[in-house]
Amino acid sequence: MSRLLPHPALSVAIFLVWIALNNASSTGHFILAFILAIGLPVLTQRFWPERPEKVKLLPAIRLFGIVLWDILLASIGVAKLVLGPLGKVKPAFVEVPLDMQDPFVGTLLASIVSLTPGTVSIDIDRSRWVLQVHALNVDDAETLIKSIKTRYEKPLKEIFSC
Amino acid sequence: MSIWVEYLISFLILVGAGFTLLGSIGLARLPDFFMRVHGPTKTTTLGVGAMVMASAIYFSVTGDGISLHEIVATVFLFITAPVSAHLLTKAALHIASRVSK
User: Fold this and answer.
1) What is the pLDDT along chain A (162 residues), one digit of tens a residue?
2) Closest to B86 (Cβ–Cβ): which among A25, A78, A114?
3) What whole-number distance in Å separates Cα of residue B36 and Cα of residue B20?
4) Residue-number span of the structural domain to which A68 is assigned
5) Which of A22, A77, A125, B85 could form a disulfide with A130 if both were Cys (CB 3.0 to 4.6 A apart)?
6) Domain count within chain A
């Protein structure tokens, strides 16, 4: 990218956050947001690691919807578990083998897994590219691994083409 | 403010409070550290999400102009909650926290 806009996505994000923080209240804030959106990425660009260049927008929006829906469904599931008899809860550590070797995308996947109730990601083993997950209730580890891979990992690979 | 908006706001606040309560119950009831982490991390996602939406609607309807702070709060929570959960569990793994059967 050009030197003026080293991270276009970051610039857009800063602009939107600043506008939202001020409730889009005055023209002055729009100008300030614009200055910050240009200035901050230039000042901080040396701190940013290499990242995937191309991002496909449509699959990203679809994945966002899937994650929100899963959060809703799984929250209700966890609520039932917490209120029900605890003897029935079967927690387990599960290892999900990853089909990608990108630290940034891997971190995104780990965050999604942590956000959806019932699973928390513990670590990404970068020597074997395995995501370690702790799940609150596992009936069948294979099903859980498959659902993480098809619901989240596949769309992520599509979005970042890696 | 119309009665339906009031119903919607009340519903969202109750859902948010309900899930926050469930998260706390989970924290108190579940037997080992790794299971307990599931309680609070989940509450932030749906519980706070619902309450923040209620706040955004209330101030958009009563105040002047739309209120957008709340959306930023949700975004920051969605970014930070997994990181803190991740660090807590990783630390627990390193000091070999007790895992109940």
Assistant:
1) 456 677 777 888 888 888 888 877 788 888 988 898 888 888 887 777 666 567 788 888 898 899 888 888 888 888 888 887 877 778 888 888 888 778 888 888 888 888 887 888 888 887 888 888 888 888 787 888 888 888 888 888 888 877
2) A114
3) 14
4) 57-160
5) A125
6) 2
* Residue in A closest to B60 by C-alpha: A23
Position A149 in a domain? yes
In a domain, A103, yes or no: yes
Distance (Å) from the alpha carbon of B6 to chain A's nearest alpha carbon: 22
Q: How close B4 gets to chain A, by Cα (Å)?
A: 23
Does residue A70 fall inside a structural domain? yes
Q: Is the same domain home to A142 and A72?
A: yes
Q: Which residue has the tokens 């706040």?
A: B55
Same domain, A36 and A86: no
- Whether residue A1 is contained in a domain is answered as no
Looking at the structure, do residues A85 and A152 belong to the same domain, yes or no?
Answer: yes
What's the CA gap between B90 and B73, in Å, rounded? 26
Greatest extent of chain A over all pairs of C-alpha atoms, in Å = 59
ipTM score for this prediction: 0.72
Q: B8: which 2 tokens? A: 């919607």
